[in-house]
Design goal:
The complex is a heterodimer. Chain A is α/β, with parallel strands linked by helices. In chain A, 32% of the residues lie in helices and 28% in strands. Chain B is mainly α. Chain B has helices spanning 2-10, 15-18, 22-45, 53-62, 67-100, 113-127, 135-154, 161-185, 194-198, 206-233, 237-242, 247-269, 275-287, 291-315, 324-342. The relative contact order of chain B is 0.16. Classes of the chains: A alpha/beta, B mainly alpha. The interface between A and B is large, with 45 and 35 residues.
Chain lengths: 260, 350
């Protein structure tokens, strides 16, 4: 039994879009990337694992408990997610935001304890935001703001962290910074990391396992070397690629849209 | 935990010590409190008869029978206290509504509070004038019914702010149309409802204060509990849900408190506009979105504004008494335009 078990998830939004019998299992400490074309259901799957959407069929189990039956705050102590779009919170400081991460641990009237503060400072430190802790969010760069939201998720002390395209809109240095942060959290805290990524090469480099989705179903799952094949790119993404090896990881060079 | 404590030490001193907004917030609370005290004294001493502050003090402490004692005890004190209460209720109500709707233009009117209260009050005053004593209760109930209708119309697997606002537009239009219809039918009596519709505190007494005080006490306690809900909704629905918050429930709770407060204000003072919109809006520019500060400063500032405006409305144009709602709108509208032109910084960008 893994930390996260997704069993036969079904969801139907319209004729064209839904999830069909999606099952996956994530072990504690695993790094998983989900790839797939636009509209293949990656974000929907992620949102269901984070309780942001309710599936029509099937279940999501966290440590053996059905999240549909868990209290919100109990689930929030185990899983958190970095969503694709964050609201604009102009005047809030980094520390204000990160403190929200302790919300699931507070009771009705209790304030922030010293232990809460220590965890907040730890999350700020881990995300290298120490110098910026008292800056307001609107004075930060996109990458810094992204890290502030990750710090908030960290303050929840989750066992599983889900990220929906965490590198979109960031320049290459900030992209690597976010991905390396995920590696660190994974190594130091044995945190399970599941992310939706658009960059195949980054997905291959920063995950233990890759999951490929197409039309609402999981079509492949395996190590980057198993998944990143010319046939897969031909069938799922309709592109022709050349595949190279960099150390032990595959990386692709896209050639052209395949002519069907 | 050790690593966390070390990290805590490494990143410097504690959170509060270096927060750059701390002084601004503290100053805002003190200034708002001073404004309220000044407005209160102004309200107690100004009117058709001027009464020096020293006399007010003597009257309140000794209560020796005199003309001043009559004026202060029977008229100015209950009226000023009610102005405080109405100002607090309207601005706190507006502050919650702007947060719930994630919209700086929101006030309780947007979900039908004023339209519902107005309709019920007009029906009583025009169709059943012998039951005029029921107007406060009817306005209060009308406000609640309108909000319930708005909320249920907006419900479709949850009630998003946008759907609530759109449903509110419909409810406002409908209630407004019926109100106009009733006023057309009873056009000979319309004179009687005009002061109420523009809002004012003329003729209030201890009776009115006693009537609304229990509700106000309940709403105040609930408001304290609501702060955390309002703060977490600032993050948006997704982030709040990820933190384990039941966002629909929080939103409904805040809408309830907001309606309760606005209903209290409407029941004693009629349709006073702009306070619920402008006060929290302005306070937000100074202290930010955090309801721990936004709420108390709005409450104090709103109270100061209504006390001041009510005093001005009854004394500047003596012997005429202007409905305070009109005065507030005349001050409020240009000020609001100024805020809009200045732009920026309110619940994100506008």
């Amino acid at each position: 039994m893994g930390v996260l078990n997704v069993d036969q998830l079904g969801y139907r939004l319209s004729e064209k879009f839904g999830l069909h019998e999606v099952s996956l299992r994530a072990e504690q400490g695993e790094r998983i990337s989900i790839i797939g074309p636009n509209g293949s259901g990656k974000s929907t799957l992620l949102k269901m694992m984070a309780r942001l959407m309710t599936p029509h069929q099937g279940s999501v189990m966290l440590n053996g408990r059905d999240i549909a039956k868990m209290k919100g705050r109990d689930a929030a102590r185990m899983v958190s997610m970095l969503t694709q779009i964050q609201p604009d919170l102009s005047e809030m400081t980094v520390r204000d935001l990160v403190q929200y991460g302790r919300h699931p641990y507070r009771s009705l009237l209790s304030g922030s304890t010293e232990a809460d503060q220590a965890i907040v400072e730890w999350a700020i430190h881990e995300t290298r935001l120490g110098q910026l802790a008292d800056r307001q969010l609107d004075s930060l760069s996109g990458g810094e703001r992204q890290r502030a939201w990750i710090a908030m998720a960290l303050a929840q002390k989750p066992k599983v962290l889900l990220l929906d395209e965490p590198t979109t809109y960031l320049d290459i240095a900030h992209q690597l910074e976010v991905l390396e942060l995920m590696n660190r959290l994974n190594e130091q805290l044995n945190m399970t990391i599941i992310m939706v990524l658009h960059d195949m090469n980054q997905a291959a480099q920063y995950s233990d396992r890759m999951i490929v989705m197409q039309d609402g179903s999981i079509v492949q799952s395996g190590t980057p070397n198993e998944v990143m094949t010319a046939e897969m790119f031909e069938q799922v993404f309709r592109i022709r690629v050349r595949i190279h090896q960099e150390q032990t990881r595959p990386y692709i060079f896209p050639l052209a849209v395949s002519s069907v | 935990m050790n690593a966390e404590l070390e990290a805590s030490k490494a990143s410097g001193s504690s959170a509060l010590a270096q927060d750059p907004r701390r002084w601004k917030r503290l100053a805002a609370i003190i200034v708002a409190l001073l404004l309220l005290i000044v407005a209160f004294l102004y309200g107690m001493s100004t009117g058709a008869v001027s009464i020096p502050i020293r006399t007010i003090w003597a009257v309140l402490v000794n209560r020796e029978p005199s003309t001043e004692e009559q004026i202060i005890w029977n008229f100015r004190l209950p009226r000023t206290l009610l102005a405080v209460l109405v100002g607090m209720a309207l601005s706190v109500s507006g502050a919650f509504m702007q947060g719930v709707m994630r919209n700086p233009l929101a006030d309780p009117g947007i979900i039908g509070v004023s339209a519902g209260a107005g309709l019920m009050a007009v029906i009583i005053m025009l169709i059943l004038p012998e039951m005029i004593y029921l107007v406060p209760a009817a306005a209060f109930i009308g406000a609640f019914i309108a909000v319930m209708v708005t909320y249920s119309l907006a419900w479709k697997r949850g009630a998003s702010p946008l759907r609530i606002i759109l449903a509110g537009v419909a409810v406002n239009a409908l209630a407004g149309a019926v109100t106009s219809g009733v006023m057309q039918l009873y056009s000979d009596r319309v004179q009687a409802v005009l002061p109420w519709l523009s809002g004012g505190l003329g003729g209030v007494s201890w009776y009115h204060l006693q009537m609304v005080l229990p509700y106000f006490a309940v709403a105040s306690v609930l408001s304290v509990f609501a702060v955390r809900h309002a703060n977490i909704l600032l993050l948006g629905d997704d982030a709040a849900k990820l933190l384990g918050q039941k966002t629909e429930r929080s939103r409904l709770f805040l809408i309830f408190i907001s309606t309760l407060l606005a209903g209290i204000a409407v029941s004693v003072s009629g349709l006073i506009g702009f306070v619920g919109l402008v006060v929290p809006h302005m306070v937000r520019l100074i202290v930010g979105n955090n309801y721990n500060y936004l709420l108390p400063v709005s409450a104090l500032g709103g109270a100061a504004l209504v006390v001041f405006a009510d005093t001005a409305a009854r004394s500047w144009f003596d012997p005429l008494e202007l409905p305070v709602g009109i005065l507030l709108a005349v001050i409020g509208a240009p000020f609001f335009l100024y805020l809009l032109r200045r732009g920026g910084g309110i619940l994100g960008r506008t």
